[in-house]
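Record passed on underneath.
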Amino acid sequence: MFRSTAMRLLKGSKWPKPLIPSDEALPIGCLVGEVTSDKMQKSVVVRVTRSRLITLYDVRQKYHRKYMAHDEQEVQNSFPFRDIHSSQVCKIGDTVRISPCRPLSKRKFYMVQKILKRAPVYSYNK
């Protein structure tokens, strides 16, 4: 068993892959997560997965936190394959980057900055 994280990295253990490309650095305060709910008007719930190192046992522990984010309506025209009647750009399953902003409501102080990966769209018509 390795005593330090540096030794574990040298041995080539498997770490989870990042959700964003490695050449693109995240701006300060921005988070990357997956949209879990889009049932509100101009708001989405984003689930951010993070991990922390427990140094006593030298293991990584995953934890999740949900944030409400403001979904802009003006970007709708750039994605014509989505539902036209919906006022939201983000759908459930999309991977998005959210950035902090001033408080917009009691629980909403993030804004959807960029959609990194779209969820697959399935059609059930035969």
